[in-house]
Amino acid sequence: MFTGIVEELGEVVLCVTDGDIHRLAVRAKKTPDDLTVGGSVAVNGCCLTAVAIEGEVMRFDLAPETVARTRFDQRLRPGTLVNLERPLRLSARLDGHFVQGHVDGIAKVVALIESGSSSEITFEFPPDLARYCVYKGSVALDGVSLTCAAVAGPRVKVAVIPHTLAVTTLGRLNVEDPVNVEVDMIAKYVEKLLPK
To answer: Is 40 considered catalytic here?
Structure first.
């Protein structure tokens, strides 16, 4: 379980396919400090299991399902920056919102607008995910906990403050860039429990 509060940016050092396993290695300063093999890290919002830790480099194996639902394909090249978050501790203050690290799909940037001291980013969501987004509701984009500032069909707009733009990959986005999406899990549970 995560909160969508990014702790640091990591740098991809390896991203290759080996048979049906996709291998990813990320270098970071503090995330590996208390990580052990078998431990979890949210990488761009996707909960991954560390299979090896070599100093500042964490190695992960990704199953085909993970690659299919995320943007962890050949777009991640050595040098690409990724958002990193360690799992939530029960004794920690809860900022952000509950994020499972189970990416639901991919959205793409359709508009970037600077608005005073913040920026507005509009994303095009797959229709089956956009239905879970509501005005003032929570969404995780590349692992960053954000509030939906506007929702119009498959388009979801978020307002992002300068601090968040500076300490996450969101400040490096361009139109057409893909992001990992995890919609609010409460909305999915409510939908499942409602009579059809």
So the answer is: yes
The CATH architecture of the domain made up of 105-193 is Beta Barrel (2.40)
Residue 74 has what pLDDT?
A: 58
Out of 28, 46, 47, 130, the active site residue is 47
Active-site residue flag, 123 = no
Structure tokens belonging to residue 195: 């009579």
- Long-range contacts (CB closer than 8 Å, 24 or more residues apart) made by 148-151: 149/120, 150/122
pLDDT of amino acid 71? 83
CATH code of domain 8-85 = 2.40.30.20
Question: pLDDT tens, 84-127?
Answer: 999 987 777 777 788 889 999 999 999 999 877 789 999 999 99
63 is catalytic: yes
User: Is the predicted pLDDT of residue 137 greater than 90, yes or no?
Assistant: yes
Q: Which of 52, 63, 68, 152 is catalytic?
A: 63
Count the Cβ atoms, other than its own, within 10 Å of residue 119: 19
- In this prediction the pTM is 0.93
The structure tokens listed for 57 are 């480099």
Which among 68, 111, 147, 166 is annotated as catalytic? 147
| Residue 98 known to be catalytic | no
Q: Exactly one of 80, 98, 102, 187 is catalytic; which is it?
A: 102
